[in-house]
Every structure is written in C-alpha cells, then in structure tokens.
Amino acid sequence: MHRLVETYYLISHGHLRRAANEKPDTNESSCEYCDAHVDARYFGQHTEQCALRYKQERDEARKYESQESIIIPCEYCEAPVKAENWEWHVEKCAEAEKKRLEKMSEEVSLKVSNERIPCKYCGHHYRAQVFEEHQKKCRREKLEAAILKRRAEVQIMENLVTIPEHWDQSSTQNLARYVLDPVSDEYQAIATNFHKTLPTSKINQIERIQNRRWFRQYEAHKDHFIERYSKSTEQWLFHGCRRSEAADAIIKDCFNRSHAVNCAAGQGIYFAVQSYTSHRYTSPDANGLRYMFMARVLVGKTTAGNPSTRVCPPGFDTTGARGVYVTYHDAQAYGQYLITYT
Predict the structure, then answer these.
(1) Strands 234-241 and 290-298: what pairing?
(2) Are residues 80 and 50 in the same domain?
(3) Which end of the chain has the least Cβ crowding within 10 Å, N or C?
(4) Which residues form the signal peptide (predicted)?
(5) Could you report how far apart the first and last alpha carbons of the chain are, in Å?
(6) Number of domains observed in the structure of the chain
(7) Residue 278 sits in the same domain as residue 334
C-alpha cells in the first residue's frame, strides 16, 4: 500500500522517479531532460512530460530575451531605437531631415532674392538676380570711360610738345622721311660727326626721320630727365643696323629691345659715341649699302652692366662703358637721322 501511494505521488507531480531514500532499481533509466532515474514502466510518460516542460521553459526564455533587445541610437535624432526597428526609424528620420533642409534652402533663397547688393563700380544696390549682369555692364562702361579719358590726356600732352620748326610741315602723316640736301648746314654737321672715326666711308644720303608720335614721347621723357637732374643729359650717339629692314622697323616703331643681340653690357639698345663702334654692327646689303642712325639719347646716370642685365639697376638710366651706352626704355632715344653709306 505504501508503494502504491508513493507511485501515485510521483505521477501526480510529473516526476515519475523513485524516492531519494530508495535504492536504484535495475529496471530504471536516466531521463535526458532532468537526469532523474525513472522506472522503466513510466519512462516514456516521464520523458514526454519533461520534454513538454523543457519546451515551455525555452519559449519563456526566448520571450524574455526578445524583451531585452539591442538598443542603437538614431543617427539623425539620436533617439534610442531597438535593433529590429532601427532601419525603419532611420529611414523615416532621413526623409524628415531632407524635407527640413529643402525648406531651409527655400527660406535662404527667398531671403537672398530680397537682399540688394551694392555694385563696386557705381555704388547702387541691385537684387541678386540682376546684380552680376549689371556689374559686368558697369565694369565695361567704366573701363571704356577710363580709356577715353587716357586718350584725351595723351592727346593734350602731345599737343604741348611742339614739332621742330625745321621739319618739313607739308606732310600731314605721322611718319615722314625727308632726304637732306648735301649742301645744307644740317647735312654737313651730321656728315662731319660721322666721318670723325669713319673718314673713308662714303655717305650716299642722310634722311631726317619725322615720326611725330615717337618724337613727342621722347620729348616728354626728356622733360622728366631734366626735372630729375636739373639739366639735360641728352647726347648724339650712333646705332648700326644689320639690314635695311631693321632700319625701316625702327623708323616705324622706334627702337625695340627684343631685337637686341651681342648683349655684353645688358639686354637693351646699344649706342656708341663713335661711328666706327656702331659700324661693326652693320652689314652691307646686296648693293653694298650700310645703315646707321645718329640718334638723340637720354644718357642720365650710367653704371656697369652684364649679359644678364634685363632692366637698368635702380638709381641709374643706362649701363655701359668706354663710349657705349645701353638704354632700357623705348622712349629714351629718338633716331633722328638715318645715314646710308658704303
């Protein structure tokens, strides 16, 4: 009777295992879920109940774990969001942020469109939509006005410089070449200076170069030198040409430093006190003719130069030595006479 009561107690509590104070029965087996020793007669029923309870406990554990999900902050609003909801939440936040930025951009554009920006040229204020176009137009008009003003100033300065009275006034052109009469005093003075160091050379003709624009530029430069030194530093010097084309180019556009060669004393235009020195830089053409200018040159203050000298050193106007001068300003010399000789 006692045995039956104990068995009933075990079955009613779902254990189906023997009491702890009883010795193991050889017909008992160990439950894989609770490790209890169960009589073989009740083993199947016991394990079935244990398996059911194990499943229930496992489901409860998983339910609890789901309640403790991983929390990730939103990258837009920084709110804590469960991992399983994070992607959806962030997508919504991104959409809201996009709308916020678009609205802000519209507000800024509206504000800018209503603002007026001052033009740096005329000082008037214009809306942003028309400001750039106006300022371009205003800049062009100011530039054109400045050019016209500068031209007027140059014209006034040119009118202040008087053309020499002995020039041939019959030509209305800017440039004229006047062949001197061999018996005139003007011709004889130039020939005498030329023959000092080239006594055997024969002069074919001497032309007076009447380039009004070049002459006015030279005279203005000369006035500046007189202001600086309180005296004239002008000298009559010679300049030889290798070809007649070079002489024609100088007559048209004055001395050009870009054509300078053999720059021993500086990269400028070379002039010499003696005609013989300049003669060495001439070459006869097909008819055996050579060309040499006798020019008016503003010497100013002179210092030594070298092949790398591209501009005159500060405080000086020319470089050179031993009767040779190098100028670095196109208006610093005026080729007044062109001597053609053999």
Answers:
(1) antiparallel
(2) no
(3) N
(4) none
(5) 163
(6) 4
(7) yes
Alpha-carbon gap, residue 161 to 273, rounded angstroms: 27
Which residue, 264, 291, 154, 123, is CA-closest to 220?
154
Flag whether 168 is in a domain: no
* 77 in the same domain as 10: no
Is there a single domain that holds both residue 185 and residue 318?
yes
Pair of tokens at residue 5: 């009561």
Asked if residue 194 and residue 102 are part of one domain, the reply reads no
**Quick check: is 253 in a domain?**
yes
Residues 129 and 99 in one domain: no
pTM of the model: 0.54
- As beta bridge partners, residue 234 has 298
Cβ-contact 268, 257 below 8 angstroms: yes
* Alpha helices (H) along 161-211: 185-195
Report the 10 Å Cβ neighbour count for 216. Answer: 20
**Residue 243 covered by a domain:** yes
Q: 79 is written with which tokens? A: 């709110």
Q: How many CA atoms lie within 13 A of 76 on its CB side?
A: 15
Q: Which residues of the chain have pLDDT under 70?
A: 1-26, 59-69, 107-114, 150-162, 258-262
Task: Spell out the residues 6+ positions from residue 20 whose beta carbon is closer than 8 angstroms to its own.
Answer: none
Residues 168, 210 contacting (CB under 8 angstroms): yes
Q: Which helix (H) or strand (E) holds 239?
A: strand 234-241
Contact present, 203 and 194 (Cβ < 8 Å): yes
Q: Given this model, what pLDDT does residue 278 score?
A: 95
pLDDT digits 0-9 by tens, 185-240: 999 999 999 999 999 999 999 999 999 999 999 999 999 999 999 999 999 999 99
Tokens linked to 272: 């010499």
In a domain, 170, yes or no: no
Give the range of the structural domain holding residue 100, as residue numbers without chain letter. Answer: 72-111
Q: Which long-range contacts (CB under 8 A, 24 or more apart) does 209-213 make?
A: 209/177, 209/251, 209/335, 209/336, 209/337, 209/338, 210/167, 210/168, 210/171, 210/175, 210/176, 210/177, 210/178, 211/174, 211/175, 211/251, 211/252, 211/254, 212/158, 212/163, 212/174, 212/175, 213/158, 213/174
Residues 279 and 130 in one domain: no
